[in-house]
Amino acid sequence: MALAYMPLANMALATMPSAVEIARTFESRSFGYKLSDPRQDLFTVYWAWLGHSEQSPWKTTALSKISMLRKTGRLVSGLGDFALSEKAVKAVQKLIGEIEIESLPLPTVTPVSGGAIFVSWRSGPKSVEATAYHDGEILVEALENQRVDEERSMGDPSSMLWWLVQG
Amino acid sequence: MGRHDDETILPEWTLARGIRPDWFENDEKGKEVIQSRAFDESNQEVSCFILEETDGAEGFQRDILPIIEKELEERLRFATVGVRFARACGFWIYRKPEEFHNNRAHVVLCPQQTENISRKQFKRQAREIARKAVPYPV
């Protein structure tokens, strides 16, 4: 069991999703976890679940969040349309599927107005951000200290993510 | 009327945009930062409100934000940015009352041309405006 957690050991604590986000993931996937139930140790359940997953933890987390956003997204007047487009979902799922790096920080996954999806991986001052737009176009950028590294962003997503996890 | 820059929206006015909690992140020093995705938009039209026409930030919080929160089913914060700065970042601003209960204070930010620009360019503009936007409550 401990070996299954090894890829997680190098992760910065800041890359963990928030407790509320984890709880929602569990509630939406019918794991029997309830946010209101104080008897359950959320993080123990979460880490155990990641340990048993066949996918790498970051992929499981990202795909699960995308699935949740797909179910809950809707048009909100005055703010934006958060109903994810199928093309955006397929594009981001393809991107995730093509990345062969098993040990990455858990990504942040949020909707972007107009049916788009945003995924980002962060490690210290570095981050890699991917936005899949409603027509299936994907923009992937590498950033350091919140500034885009234009040259690095010309590369493929996997090379940007290797750069992210290198010290 | 299609995309244009509405000159009745004065440079000294202020715009407010609802910000989802997941559009904030903390930087290395723990400082809260509004992320570019808050001002990014697949169709390149970003909803905002003119504070001068909503009875200021208080009026926006009292009369507009609750309507958006009810639709979203989630609490929101908001950020403000000057009209002059929004234009300097490369946006046109025009009214779209029909997209928010026929409220004239509702506007959209779009590129400074009738056609969409590249996603990379629009993201750059979104990043620039997000960097200077002031979050509320602080």
Cross-sheet strand order for the largest sheet of chain B: 6-7-4-1-5-8
Shape of chain A: globular
Parts with pLDDT < 50 across at least 5 consecutive residues of chain B: none
Backbone CA Rg of chain A: 16 Å
Radius of gyration of chain B: 14 Å
Percentage of residues in helical conformation of chain A: 40-55%
Q: Count up the helices of chain A.
A: 6
Strand tally of chain B is 8
Number of domain units of chain A: 1
Alpha-beta content class of chain A? alpha+beta
Our count of helices of chain B gives: 3
| Oligomerization category of the chains in this entry | heterodimer
Q: What is the N-to-C succession of helices and strands of chain A?
A: HHHHEEHEEEEEH
Describe the structure.
The complex is a heterodimer of chains A (167) and B (138). By secondary structure, chain A is α+β, with helices and mostly antiparallel strands. Chain A has one domain (11-165). Chain A contains six helices and seven strands. In chain A, the strands form two sheets. In chain A, strands 3-4-5-6-7 form a five-stranded antiparallel beta sheet. A two-stranded antiparallel sheet of chain A has the order 1-2. In chain A, a hairpin with a 3-residue loop joins strand 1 (75-76) and strand 2 (80-81). In chain A, helix 4 runs antiparallel to helix 5 (86-98). The longest helix of chain A is centred in the middle third of the chain and has 16 residues, at 57-72. Residues 1-15 of chain A have low confidence and may be disordered. With 138 residues, chain B is α+β, with helices and mostly antiparallel strands. Chain B has one domain (14-20, 35-135). Chain B is 27% helix and 27% strand. Chain B contains three helices and eight strands; from the N terminus they run ββββαβαββαβ. In chain B, strands 6-7-4-1-5-8 form a six-stranded antiparallel beta sheet, sandwiched between helices. The longest helix of chain B has 17 residues, at 56-72. The A-B interface holds A 14, 74, 76-80, 82, 85, 88, 108, 110, 112-116, 118, 122, 124-125, 129, 131, 133-135, 137, 139, 141, 145-146, 148 and B 18, 20, 22-23, 25-28, 33, 36-37, 40-43, 46-47, 49, 64, 67-68, 71-72, 76, 99-101, 106, 119-120, 123-124, 127, 131.
